[in-house]
Amino acid sequence: MADEAELAADQHVRYIVTVEKVTSAATPPFPPRVPSTPPSAFQRPLLSSAQKKDSFESLVMEHIRLNGAYWGLTTLDLLHKLHAVDAAEVVDWIMSCYHPESGGFGGNVGHDPHVLYTLSAVQVLCLFDRLDVLDVDKVADYVAGLQNKDGSFSGDIWGEVDTRFSYIALCTLSLLHRLHKIDVQKAVDFVVSCKNLDGGFGAMPGGESHAGQIFCCVGALAITGSLHHIDRDLLGWWLCERQCKDGGLNGRPEKLADVCYSWWVLSSLVMIDRVHWIDKEKLTKFILNCQDKENGGISDRPDNAVDIYHTYFGIAGLSLMEYPGVKPLDPAYALPLDVVNRIFLKK
Ligand code: GRG
Q1: CA atoms of 261 and 298, how far apart (whole Å)
Q2: Which residues are within 8 A (CB) of 168 and not within 5 positions of it... i.e. 6 or more apart?
Q3: Given this model, what pLDDT does residue 63 score?
Q4: Which of 54, 145, 222, 284 is most buried, by the most CB atoms less than 10 A from its CB?
């Protein structure tokens, strides 16, 4: 693995376009809920590469393909290559994961709706400036309907509660300009009730602090203008202690570094204005050393297999460190800054 690495942007673009094609070749386990349309160019090459549809990445991505689309397409946009895919065909596919009866999106065609995929669908539509295809109130009602009496959110009709879902609900409703459909104060109170003595946040009250959940809680508080609930120095200290000897960041004490925390930790540090407490040079080297420079893609740690999740969060981390040639990302909405500005300046 090269030490003096540079970002292999072209290879990553090629890798993402290939993964997008391969993963959408996977046959949905259930018949599509919406009448199928002829295969689009976004789907066509994948439909013809029969040997690839059983690939490991294709199989593990099957149920979370909408998340995968968000990771891959946002990466393309960060690298100024969103035009490598056909916008209309992507939008058609996104809408084929929509459930008009509930207003939510499933992770793939024929899969049950969940807030996780509903946010990804909204985010991808934001990338393409195509929120116009949505029945915005119907989608917003689906999300708002998942708020519980204590202000928390469930992920779907089965009721699991997690601060991930609080963030997702607030982010989705904010992007749709529909925050007024929920009790925002109660949502904030629930998130604050998940704060720990170490300054971090967990998945629910009393849950262990974890960088992923911290991103969700800090993001939720940022979106609602409630960052005053955070002790910035205490949380900043916990977060910057996530930097390991190898330069990478871990998600909690005593764990190995993983490229994805370059996003979960750094975005939180940016939101509380403590990102300068990280050694950016060492972290940049760690991320770049996790690249497959030949075939594209980024892995969790050097010399491991690449995947689209770590490719996105590695490049997202570089974006937050202002790496040349990578667009700036908004740390709260997890979308390119120009996209977020377009959404909020348009109104
Ligand atoms: C729009 C960016 C964006 C996110 C949507 C789904 C979501 C909201 C946030 C997920 C936050 C989260 C919990 C991230 C952590 C993911 C992760 C790598 C979990 C692994 O945890 P462990 O305990 O691994 O298995 P460690 O690294 O602690 O060993």
Answers
A1: 13
A2: 115, 116, 118, 119, 143, 153, 155, 216
A3: 86
A4: 222
Four-point Cα dihedral 316, 60, 212, 338, nearest 10: 30
CA–centroid distance, residue 200 to ligand 1 (Å): 14
Q: Ligand 1 in contact with 105 (CB < 6 A)?
A: no
Of all atoms in ligand 1, which is nearest to the CA of residue 267? 2
Q: Determine phi and psi for 329, rounding to 5 degrees.
A: -105, 145
| Phi and psi angles of residue 157, each rounded to the nearest 5 degrees, phi first | -65, -15
Q: Is 290 in the pocket of ligand 1 (CB under 6 A)?
A: no
pTM over 0.85: yes
Q: Whose CA is nearest to atom 5 of ligand 1?
A: 168
Let me know: does 109 contact 97? Beta carbons within 8 Å: yes
The backbone torsions φ and ψ at residue 189, rounded to the nearest 5 degrees and listed phi first, read -60, -40
255 lines ligand 1 (CB under 6 A): yes
Q: How far is CA 240 from the centre of its chain?
A: 22
Q: List average pLDDT for each run of 10 residues in the chain, which is 347 residues long.
A: 76 91 43 32 34 63 91 98 96 97 97 98 98 98 98 97 98 98 98 98 98 98 98 98 98 98 98 98 98 97 97 98 98 98 88
Quick one: angle between helices 261-271 and 280-288, nearest 10? 150
Closest CA to 123 of 187, 77, 158, 84: 77
Tell the residue nearest (CA) to atom 17 of ligand 1: 212
Q: What pLDDT shows up at residue 240?
A: 98
Read out DSSP for 73-124?
HHHHHHTT-GGGS-HHHHHHHHHTTEETTTTEEBSSTTPPB-HHHHHHHHHH
CA–CA separation, 217 vs 227, rounded Å? 10
Task: Quote the DSSP letter at residue 305.
Answer: P
The CB density around residue 132, as the number of other CB atoms within 10 Å, is 8
What pLDDT score was predicted for residue 60? 73
